[in-house]
Protein: Serine/threonine-protein phosphatase 4 regulatory subunit 4
Organism: Scyliorhinus torazame
Amino acid sequence: EVLHVAGVEMQLAAAVSFLTILQEELVSIVAYIHSFLPIILANLDHRDTVVSNAWLETLLTVINALPKETIRQEILSPLVSKAQLSQTIQSRLASCKILGKVARKFESHIIKRDILPLVKSLCQDVEYEVRSCMCRQLEFIAQGIGVEQTKSAILPELVELAKDEGSSVRIAAFDTIVNLLVMFDSDDRTQIIFPLVMMFCEKSFKADETILAPLSHQLGKLCHGLSGNLTEEQHSWFLDFYKKFSTLGLQHENGQSDHTTQFYAADMDAKYVSVRQNCAYNLPAMILFVDPKCFYSELYPTFSTLCHDPETLVRRTVATGFHEVIKLLGSGVHIVHKELIALLQDESLEVLDALLDHLPEILRFVITGGDHVGSESKVHIPDLIPALSVAEQRAATSLKWRIHEKLLLTFSCLPQVISSDQIYYKFLPIMFRIMTTNNVLPVQRASARTLCVFVRYNRKQEQRQEICSKLIEQLGQGRSCWNRLRFLDTCENIMDLFSKAFFCKYFFLPVLELSSDPVPNVRIKFCYMLPKLKSALKLPADKYLLQQLELCVRKLLCQEKDKDVTAIVRIITLELDRMEISMESFPKRLQEKDLLDHKKEKEENLLLEMEDMEKRGEIKSMNEKKLLSSFNKDGKKKTKLGRSRSLGGRVAPPKITTDKSAMKLTSAASNSQISTATKNALLSFDGTLQSHSSSSGGPSNLPSCPSRFYSANSNEQKTNWGKDTLPKKFNLKSRKSNP
């Protein structure tokens, strides 16, 4: 009752509401047809274009739920009069869209009888907007009438529209032809479509540059659709046409000072950039068109040119589809290594951001040389590590911290790509630097998370040991309260990634020390971690740690003076009282989280066993070399002795030599002793055979080890990373707070 005098805002709200009523089935379809459909149809002719388009969109969605008979009577019958030339352009445009929608609801003979005459009439409309709109609906009409009727009724209309004087009509016809390629047979493609497309493409270069961008966008789909029906000459024509598009505008420079000429040149440059961007978008389709085996000879120069295009939009589009390119290349992925490095080092962070979306997938595929992801063989990529370092530096020095955060989280895939030694020497110092110097909290947390992943998959106990020591010394016992807060963040990540046994052995007690931190914010964060700390314990092995935890809670309840900390402690204490501690004596009662923890501990033990086997292999190899050397010396001595007997009458006195069997026995015994000692050291480090706390009854200290963050020939060993220090007992009372 109100809509006929309502304003634009109320009309738009009503259009949305009417659609919601149908979608949520608030009334029956019969009631909806009786009460709401007439109002929708009446408002299609609203004088305001925005309002009429809103009601048209509502009707197009409602048609899907309407019965065929209702569509025929209420929508299709009035459409005959609304599609006449005497009606407004707005009414005829709405008729085009409605025809395209209702054609999917009826059988082919009904479409041919009732809808096709209207379609042909609108394709011949005097207004180019109507012809263009109807042309874009021909795809849906063709799907309704089938292949045979499309060839006889729709294809002639498309051919005529492709030659239309209006550029928008020609573009619509070209797009529709490309989308309907699958419905045309080989003869139609060869005799009708290909000549038409060739004429269309040549005309766009010579006379009408307005259609260059739409044409270049559909070029990949067009080539792929026609590839099975082209001769070698036609194939080469399309490929050359694509190559021209990919360099369009790069050779043209206008140095004139006339203002009009400069503006025109800038406008043309913008169109050319769009064309080259579409060429970058179509790269995967063109690789299929030429066959991946011919990529290097046919498309590699074009691909390299697009990767180094002067416009950021083009390079970003290449980076977005780079993962599709390497998948198509397969074992030939090594061809594009240089381009990957160039995109990683691109001066624009937008390019790096686009590459990061699939960078883990790209690196895994490239590093295996196109083989399966689980392949053991890895391909060395020159300059990969420097390129990643440069990308991190660019992101760190910019103001776009979200890209920096995204890059750091992406670095967590590196253990699957490069060796743990390379990560240890090249990337761990970067993570520590970010955690201690960066001022953006999400970036700090991202670096902490990635650092924990590095530790999780590090295959050398000495390196894992030193990283843990550095975390405790530089963060947990750091002078800045920000570092101590990041230490607690890191410990939460360690709880997620590592087993409970690993965390309790090396980080539980250092975390408890922060219960008496001089900064209230640190103590508050510690209090929020108390439930996680308790859930990490297992009885009876962690009885001592449980006692220390309860002692910290009692101290906080009795001695805490800050009211905020006190309030949080009281709430957390109630939660701690309700928690149950896991018992090692009931393995059958393991819950899902306990099974996950057991799996993590098993993986950690497996890493130790692998390291133990590698060390034993090195020792065995070394012993074999020594044994071979001794055999060679013994053989030389016997040769000399034989020569002395044959050449002279006197025999030289024999020298004492080592018996072979005795040497083998000694070597085996030595090998066994070293292997046993190594295994015991590994097991004592990671706590695999004995409990991490029960045997000592107290905290386990990390032994000192030489710092290996930099190579021996580096001058940077004199920095803090090269210190050979132990995490000393931290005296909280003597430390000055540095909030």
Remarks:
- The longest strand covers residues 538-539.
- Strands lie at 538-539, 582-583.
